[in-house]
Amino acid sequence: MKRILLIIMISLSSAFAKADDLDIGNVIFDHVLDSYEWHITEWKGKPVAIHLPVIIIDHGIHAFNSHKILETGEYGGYHIAPEGAKHEGKIVRADGTKPFDISITKNVLQLFFNAILLLVIVLLTARWYRRHDALKEHPTGIAALMEPLIMMVHDMAKENIGEDYRRYSPFLLTVFLFILFSNFIGIIPFFPGGANLTGNIACTLTLALFTFFTVNLTGTKHYYKEIFSPDVPGVLKPLMAIIETFSALVKPISLTIRLFANMLAGHIQILCMVCIIFILGKYGPVMTGGGTLITVLFGIFLDVLEMLISFIQAYIFTMLSSIYIGMARQKAE
Amino acid sequence: MNLITPDTGLLFWMVLIFGIVFFILAKWGFPAITGMVDKRNEHISESLRLADEARERMSHLAEEQKALIAETKAEQSRILKEAAQARSEMLAQAKADAQAQTADMIEKAREQIANERETALRDIRRQVALLSVDVAEKVLRAKLDASPEQQALIDRYVDESRSSN
């Protein structure tokens, strides 16, 4: 194990030192970041990609195909911010400021795809329960697949939230299945998967904000009293109130960062493994063969690990959300 | 920096899409599923409880049955015993009655016999007396007249014979 790690480290370091024409950093970041096109593969030296529509709201709606701006780097008064600029890689105005850009990017398309998949699967499951008498038949097909997942979260809600858990269980279920689906689809390396949706901070931030508002807009009086006027001696009261407020605000941030960082790190790890094969390609057949064998084995290991992490992260996000909701639903003793 | 700056475009789409998905699933998706499964779970636990109760009742039933059988057996043996006792009592009673009756009858018969013998004896005696008187009359008429001495003698003899009887 030590030897394998050593080999990888040596090869990695030498690769970064020597590979001039293969910028690993760029390759990896191109994969994990959002983009205006969906690069699927190369065919006969030409890239096969889906050019996604750019939609900019800037004194009216400007919509055009992204290949127009990607080919020349400039279109209709907008250009793509160069490397090192403030909004690197994004479409900006001539003066470098960023318009409200709601383009259908790679992640947005992936989001559509995941959302539709989630809707189809859950509604099909619901249809099974509407069409069958669950008291007389055991679930089959898609219902058998989805029921354990759904009931796991439903029971989690029951355990953590208490009496009115039925109000919150659909939210927790949507969050859980959305994250789970997105995580899994993110591991699939080819179209229509592989976009790093849950490894994108905007995505996780939205989910965390949904949790934040669910928690703080449906809290009980007791919950707000605990935050703004905790039961401590007079002098400590303002201090504790500040701390409690801060803690309430930090919760969604921690949710955001945890999911985002885990999924991003997973993607980067797997991409690194794949990249090592190409780096080793320069060092002759022996190195390539041996290195490839090792990296493929490692890649498989990381992929499996990533599947585990996908589930665990979805579970943790949902569980913490349910615990936060449960805390906000507490009643005075 | 690109990596950790939330992109407004994706943020916008995410809120929109997630909101829509959540709305649809919360309305037509999850409640149908969880409601059904909850109902089924309740049904299962209810069925289990009922089965448990039934099993308990069954075991009680068996016990009751056993008790009933034991009771019946006891009753049966009691009745049999009573019957046997009654029979032997009746037998004894009948025997006693019969004996008493027999004894009574024997007694009566004996009395009757005694009475009849008495009557017969009296008859015989009268006959004998008459016969004796006749015989004596005939004997004496032939030999002597009916003197007073003779008559006294005869009376004496008759008395003697009566007392010797």
Overall SS class of chain B: mainly alpha
pLDDT under 50 segments of chain B (min length 5)? Answer: none
Total count of domains of chain A: 2
Largest sheet of chain B: none
Order of helical and strand elements of chain B: HH
User: What value does the average pLDDT of chain A take?
Assistant: 85
Task: Characterise the protein shown here.
The complex is a heterodimer of chains A (333) and B (165). Chain A has 333 residues and is mainly α. Chain A has two domains: 59 residues, no CATH class; 223 residues, no CATH class. Chain A has ten helices and eight strands. In chain A, the strands form three sheets. A three-stranded antiparallel β-sheet of chain A has the order 4-3-8. In chain A, helix 4 packs across helix 6, helix 5 packs across helix 10 and helix 6 packs antiparallel against helix 10. The longest helix of chain A is centred in the C-terminal third of the chain and has 45 residues. The radius of gyration of chain A is 24 Å and the shape is globular. About 2% of the residues of chain A have low confidence. Chain B is an all-alpha fold and 165 residues long. Chain B has one domain. In chain B, 93% of the residues lie in helices and 0% in strands. Chain B contains two helices and no strands. Chain B is rod-shaped.
